[in-house]
Amino acid sequence: MTQSPPESLGLCIYEIDAEDRIVFCNDEWDVFALANGGDGIVFGNINGKVLWDYVADPSSKDLYRRLVAQVRNGRTVKFRLRCDSPEMFRLLEMRIFKTDAERVRFTTRIEVFELRNAEVVNASDTGEPLVVCSWCGRVNIDNQVWRDVEIAIPQMRIFERAYLPTVSHGICPDCYANITDLLRTAD
After folding, report:
1. Is the pLDDT confidence value at 141 over 70?
2. DSSP β-bridge partners for residue 94
3. 34 CB contacts (<8 Å, ≥6 apart)?
4. Which are the contacts of 100, defined by CB distance < 8 A and separation ≥ 6?
5. What is the pLDDT of residue 9?
6. What is the number of helices (H) and of strands (E) in the chain?
7. What pLDDT score was predicted for residue 3?
8. Which residues face 15 on adjacent strands?
C-alpha cells in the first residue's frame, strides 16, 4: 500500500568540502541513519571522512564523482533513486548542488514509501552475493540480466537455498546509461 512519507522523516542534508570530506549532516541524517541500523554513519562518526569511502560499488562511485564534478562546474543535478529497507519500499529524490566555492550539498527526501513484509536476505552464505542496483532496486539474476526484487527472489529460488546470500550493491546497465546520458547532456 503506497503511503505518504511519515512526517518524522524530513529532508536529509549532507555536504562535502573541496577535498570530498563530509563536513555537515543535518539532524535528519542521524535520525534516518539510526532508524535504519546505520549507527556507524551518524555525523559524529563520519565528520571529516572522505565521502567515497562510503560508496562500495565502483560504478556508483564513478557516477557520483562525475555528478559532483558537474555540480562543481555550476550545474544542479536532480534525480530519483530507490533506498529500500527490508520492511519498506522507498523512492527518494536527490538533489546535488554547490553552496559556495568550496562545498557541495546533497539533499534527499522521500517521495513515496510502501510498507511491505520483511524478507531477510542477509545471512551466512558461501556463494556469490545478491547484487542489487543502488538506483532502482533491481537484482542481478544472471550476468547482466536485472529484475525487480519481487520477481528475482522466486526466480532465483533464494529461499530454497541452504543459506541466504549476502547483499551487495551495484548499478544496473539501464541506470548507468541514464546517468551517463544525464552527464553527457551537461557537457
Report:
1. yes
2. 79, 108
3. 42
4. none
5. 59
6. 5, 10
7. 47
8. 24, 105
